[in-house]
Amino acid sequence: MQLKLTFAEEDSNRHSEPPAWEKLDAEARAKALRRLALMIARMLTAREACDD
User: Fold this and answer.
1) What is the pLDDT of residue 52?
2) pLDDT computed for residue 3 by the predictor
3) I want to staple 18 with a disulfide (CB 3.0 to 4.6 A). Which of 22, 30, 40, 45 is the partner?
4) How many other CB atoms are found less than 10 A from the CB of residue 25?
5) What is the per-residue pLDDT for 47?
6) Cβ proximity of 49 and 41 under 8 Å
7) What stretches in the chain show pLDDT beneath 50?
8) Superkingdom, according to UniProt (predicted)?
9) How far is the C-alpha of 35 from the C-alpha of 31, rounded, in Å?
10) What sign for the dihedral angle of Cα 7, 12, 16, 18?
11) Rounded to whole angstroms, how far apart are CA atoms 13 and 30?
């Protein structure tokens, strides 16, 4: 399952469909947040390794 990020400008253009995030149950939201956190952590550690 993929979620699409929307920005304020895009959000004002269309209001017909609720964001994908709101369709998820609590367990799916938690799983998505964990995956996002892991991805960010990997990016940060990779960047720190390159800076050394």
Assistant:
1) 59
2) 67
3) 22
4) 8
5) 75
6) no
7) none
8) Bacteria
9) 6
10) positive
11) 28
Residues 24 and 46: their CA atoms lie apart, in Å, by: 30
Contacts of 2 (CB under 8 A, 6+ apart): 20
CA–centroid distance for 22 within its chain: 13
CB neighbour list of residue 18: distance below 8 Å, 6 or more residues apart: none
Task: Report how far residue 20's alpha carbon sits from residue 34's, in angstroms, rounded to the nearest whole number.
Answer: 17
Name the 3-class secondary structure at 24. coil
- What is d(CA 22, CA 43) in angstroms, rounded to the nearest whole number? 27
- CA-to-CA separations, 8 to 3, 12, 28, 39, in angstroms, rounded: 16, 6, 24, 24
Q: What confidence score (pLDDT) does residue 23 get? A: 77
